[in-house]
Design a protein that fits this description.
Helix content is 31%, strand content 25%. The chain is α/β, with parallel strands linked by helices. Strands 1, 2, 3, 4, 5, 6, 7, 8, 9, 10 and 11 form an eleven-stranded mixed beta sheet that branches. Helix 1 packs across helix 2 (47-59). It is globular, with a radius of gyration of 18 Å.
Length: 295
């Protein structure tokens, strides 16, 4: 099914190049029905990369989707051109009267800070609170998921001694529509300096653990009563995303280990292979099915 993206957004060309149908201005959907309205609160520094990743996942689904990009008014991005933000992004204040079928809140490279020390935390709290009435289903990614767990349930995050970095085997822990069709074990990219712990989750009624890794820990939680999902890792990543992060950290002199289970023979000269794309498309397609049911 097609995805509707703002005219001129780079993700349009990315999706088209991969065979994903993108609606042209004024073009009607294949079903001539109302598309799912999905808002993406993009807190990542390299916003275009995140737009591309998530647009391709949503656009590859069986649903018509219209994507609205949201940014923060209280924080200005230093890694994305202001012209791009001004042209394609809206603030929460500009959409607060609207209702979206789905909302995605991304992670951000601030995870080692206490939540309340992030400069846009008060604005993010307003968005999360607003989502309870103005979003049919909310999906938090990485730090975005940790923010939701902290805001709604007081679940803390813990700083790791070393970055959890690589592609780790995850196992299915329970059934839920969002993991329908998943195998018993799958590989998922992980890139975190912090973790959420099972003991804290166990104390919160209504949270269900869906995916877990013996090495990387918690991955995916569901809160069916609120139609909220908490994904701590990255099924939307490109094949090269972890390599880009690794090369960036090496270039700035960080003490970073090779991403585990990523390069063939642990050789960074070898091109990485995407072993999770199909499961990523299944995950986001399943989420959109839940979004459609929440209308």
């Amino acid at each position: 099914m097609p995805i509707e993206l703002p005219e001129g957004l780079p993700a349009r060309d990315v999706c088209k190049a991969e065979g994903i149908r993108v609606l042209e201005p004024g073009q009607r959907t294949r079903t001539d029905g109302k598309p799912l309205e999905v808002a993406l609160l993009n807190l990542m520094p390299e916003k275009i990369k995140t737009e591309n990743q998530l647009a391709r996942m949503l656009g590859a689904s069986a649903f018509d989707v219209r994507l609205t990009l949201l940014g923060t008014a209280s924080h200005q991005s230093r890694n994305t051109a202001p012209e791009h933000i001004q042209r394609f992004y809206k603030t929460w204040e500009q959409v607060r009267e609207r209702r979206f079928d789905g909302l995605i809140i991304t992670g951000a490279p601030v995870e080692t800070l206490p939540f309340e020390q992030v400069d846009y935390w008060p604005e993010l709290v307003k968005v999360m609170d607003w989502s309870e009435t103005n979003a049919g289903s909310t999906l938090g990614l990485c730090w975005g998921a940790q923010c939701m767990l902290w805001r709604f349930h007081g679940v803390p995050k813990y700083t790791l001694e070393a970055k959890m970095f690589g592609v780790f085997a995850h196992r299915a822990m329970a059934s839920d529509p969002i993991v329908a069709g998943f195998p018993d074990e799958l590989a998922i990219p992980t890139s975190r300096h912090t973790e959420t712990r099972t003991a804290d989750i166990a104390r919160v009624p209504g949270l269900k653990l869906l995916l877990d890794s013996p090495e990387a820990g918690l991955c995916l939680l569901a809160e069916p009563a609120k139609r909220r999902y908490y994904m701590l890792n990255h099924l939307e990543y490109d094949a090269t995303t972890l390599n880009d992060e690794y090369q960036r950290d090496v270039a700035r002199g960080d003490h970073i280990q090779l991403p585990k289970n990523y390069f063939d023979n642990d050789d960074p000269a070898q091109p990485p292979r995407n072993r999770w794309r199909a499961h990523g498309r299944l995950f986001y397609g399943n989420w959109l099915a839940e979004v459609a049911r929440s209308r």
